[in-house]
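Worked example 3 (structure in, sequence out).
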């Protein structure tokens, strides 16, 4: 028994299947995060970005003092914020104290971090994603900016071509004469 008797039916079924799949996109950011999964979908960025955060008062005061110089206009709001910042030592948070997880979906932006520093780095990533000012990509980003691997790749170009650049490897540090930049 032939499933598709007409070749046009097969072509139509293949086109329908491809249309249902999400296209993964690559982000235009520096430094590039350790993990990201981005689709072709986008979320509209509100004119005033509202946020809520569970930070201690001193760290919340620091964040509020920083906001006037932040590239996105933001204001705190407890009910229905666009950005939710959750700082917690729980196991589902990123492994590094400076790490973060940033998720953007149709409901808004969720930031999970183990420290206020991690939340700060996530806000820097959010600012890069919002450069066009109108839309944000639907994405999940996990990063730990405090690690030296990202810095070493930018400062020592020969390292990026090495096969083993994991943090547990001793092959990326110290730089050798062949991998270190001269004149620094």
């Amino acid at each position: 028994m032939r499933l598709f008797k007409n070749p046009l039916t097969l072509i139509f079924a293949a086109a329908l299947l491809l249309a249902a799949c999400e296209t993964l996109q690559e982000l235009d950011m520096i430094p590039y995060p350790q993990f990201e999964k981005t689709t072709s979908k986008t979320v509209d960025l509100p004119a005033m970005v509202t946020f809520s955060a569970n930070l201690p008062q001193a760290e919340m005061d620091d964040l509020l003092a920083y906001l006037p110089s932040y590239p996105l206009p933001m204001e705190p709001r407890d009910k229905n914020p666009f950005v939710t910042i959750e700082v917690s030592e729980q196991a589902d948070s990123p492994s590094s104290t400076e790490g973060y997880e940033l998720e953007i979906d149709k409901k808004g932006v969720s930031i999970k971090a183990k420290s206020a520093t991690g939340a700060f780095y996530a806000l820097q990533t959010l600012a890069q994603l919002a450069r066009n000012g109108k839309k944000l990509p639907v994405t999940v980003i996990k990063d730990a900016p405090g690690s030296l691997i990202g810095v070493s790749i930018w400062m020592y170009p020969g390292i990026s071509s090495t096969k083993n650049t994991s943090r547990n490897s001793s092959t990326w540090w110290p730089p050798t004469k062949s991998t270190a930049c001269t004149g620094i």
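Notes: Confidence is low (pLDDT under 50) at residues 158-184. The helical segments are 7-20, 57-66, 116-129, 148-155.
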